[in-house]
């Protein structure tokens, strides 16, 4: 959610001077929040907006969900955490696959690798693809790719030697 | 702002919460998400046919920058490789040992085999070690610039050593 905070430019200069005065009077450093609040007051950067609003200029800020009454969905945050958790799991699968190869390892490796790749490529799409329809197309394509990848790996695990054995064979040559 | 000053003078610079609530007294919710704003930005600028400012063509390359894009590049390459492997498993008729013997019978020189082993193991090693570096950043460790460079050099060294070790296996 974005908030528009309205402040009067005339008082900005007075406020800045007063802050210094108060700081010197109280004989201790001005608490950091005051300086943080003064960063919302940007007289030079907002000059252009002054022409649109001759008597006040607005600062637009994105407040964190905890500040509003209606908190947003936690989906993005959970996705982020899930990505990191999966990365840690995949990290542990390396030595596990080496010491305990087998069908269980093959299947979990297939699932973890595909999901990690899917989420990773999803971040690449988010970074470089812009525009609603293009994003939708890219995500659909990615989903298709990941589905085919997972299906292929499962097929390989079931009908063929399996991932762990395949890597072992490949490396023995 | 006048309100803020009066509150400050009265309370003697304590209790940050009151100052925060004073700032929000004149706040008006806009009703757009960051995602919507980003979409608007791109729509407006592509519609106006504005050229993109030079960025990667002029910015000086640094080790962290190069490692970051390499992390992405190795990730995409490895993912593509796995997808290609899975697709081949679905499409091709023979079994894996069959194709392995087929490649073996083509009798590539040992140099090529070693080179291809290194070419496979280096992206895996680099992406893994840099991934650990990313995870440490995610818990807030090692974010100072000298630490970033130091961990970067460690990752590069470990990646080379590990891929050499894996190639030799």
UniProtKB/TrEMBL annotation, chain A:
Residues reported to bind a ubiquinone: 128
Residues engaged in binding heme b: 116
GO MF entries: heme binding; metal ion binding; ubiquinone binding
Subcellular locations according to the entry: Mitochondrion inner membrane
Top-level division of the source organism's lineage: Eukaryota
GO biological process: mitochondrial electron transport, succinate to ubiquinone; tricarboxylic acid cycle
Signal sequence region: 1-17
GO cellular component, one term: mitochondrial inner membrane
Pathways involved: Carbohydrate metabolism; tricarboxylic acid cycle
Membrane topology of the entry: Multi-pass membrane protein
One Pfam family from the record: CybS
Entries under InterPro entries matching the protein: CybS (IPR007992), SQR/QFR_C/D (IPR034804)
Keywords annotated in UniProt: Electron transport, Heme, Iron, Membrane, Metal-binding, Mitochondrion, Mitochondrion inner membrane, Signal, Transit peptide, Transmembrane, Transmembrane helix, Transport, Tricarboxylic acid cycle
Family according to the record: Belongs to the CybS family.
Function: Membrane-anchoring subunit of succinate dehydrogenase (SDH) that is involved in complex II of the mitochondrial electron transport chain and is responsible for transferring electrons from succinate to ubiquinone (coenzyme Q). SDH also oxidizes malate to the non-canonical enol form of oxaloacetate, enol-oxaloacetate. Enol-oxaloacetate, which is a potent inhibitor of the succinate dehydrogenase activity, is further isomerized into keto-oxaloacetate.
Assembly with partners or alone: Component of complex II composed of four subunits: the flavoprotein (FP) SDHA, iron-sulfur protein (IP) SDHB, and a cytochrome b560 composed of SDHC and SDHD.
The protein's name: Succinate dehydrogenase [ubiquinone] cytochrome b small subunit
Species the sequence originates in: Pygocentrus nattereri (Red-bellied piranha)
Automatic annotation (TrEMBL), chain B:
Record's protein name: Succinate dehydrogenase cytochrome b560 subunit, mitochondrial
Organism, as annotated: Pygocentrus nattereri (Red-bellied piranha)
GO molecular function: electron transfer activity; metal ion binding
Gene3D superfamilies named among the record's database cross-references: Fumarate reductase/succinate dehydrogenase, transmembrane subunit (1.20.1300.10), Single helix bin (1.20.5.540)
Subcellular location: Membrane
Quaternary state and interactors: Component of complex II composed of four subunits: the flavoprotein (FP) SDHA, iron-sulfur protein (IP) SDHB, and a cytochrome b560 composed of SDHC and SDHD.
Pfam families: Sdh_cyt
Gene behind this protein: SDHC
PANTHER family: SUCCINATE DEHYDROGENASE CYTOCHROME B560 SUBUNIT, SUCCINATE DEHYDROGENASE CYTOCHROME B560 SUBUNIT, MITOCHONDRIAL
Pathway the protein acts in: Carbohydrate metabolism; tricarboxylic acid cycle
Domain of life: Eukaryota
GO BP terms, alphabetized: mitochondrial electron transport, succinate to ubiquinone; tricarboxylic acid cycle
InterPro entries in the record: SQR/QFR_C/D (IPR034804), Succ_DH_cyt_bsu_CS (IPR018495), Succ_DH_cytb556 (IPR014314), SuccDH_FuR_B_TM-su (IPR000701)
A Gene Ontology term for the protein's cellular component: mitochondrion
